[in-house]
Specification:
Elements (H helix, E strand, L loop, with lengths): L7 E7 L3 E7 L2 H12 L3 H4 L4 E7 L23 H34 L1
Antiparallel strand pairs: 1-2, 1-3
Bound molecules: zinc ion.
The site of zinc ion has 8 residues, from helix 3.
């Protein structure tokens, strides 16, 4: 698939599995995406799917700051700026935890020696 393929949103309905909205390049691959969501083999459901095109896929919005980022159809997560912030926070928390573990070990060692 070329990187410039236009993505659309499709509503895919199945009598047993209900309705999902997926992002895809066309109706056929939309049923494939829906089968993945339902966790069933595509061949079992493809013939029973009803596909409705909803429109052009929107770019995802960041879960944290709600700004748009990336490409249409990218999974919804965090924008690069928020990823940086979250990453830095995680590293700080890891360092803090590591320091505390070190202190605990040191204290236990001293207690044993007393
Ligand atoms: Zn963000």
């Amino acid at each position: 698939m070329s990187g410039g393929a236009k993505l659309y949103r499709f509503e895919v309905s199945h009598p047993d599995y209900g309705t999902v909205i997926v992002t895809s390049i066309g109706p056929d691959s939309a049923t494939n995406e829906a089968a993945k969501v339902w966790g069933v083999p595509w061949r079992e459901v493809a013939g029973y799917c009803r596909v409705t095109k909803l429109g052009t896929a929107a770019r995802p919005r960041c879960r944290r700051c709600h700004s748009e980022y990336g490409q249409p159809g990218d999974p919804k997560a965090y924008c690069p700026a928020c990823l940086d912030i979250l990453d830095r926070r995680r590293r700080e928390a890891d360092r803090y935890a590591a320091e505390n573990r070190g202190r605990d070990r040191e204290r236990r060692r001293r207690e044993r020696e007393e």
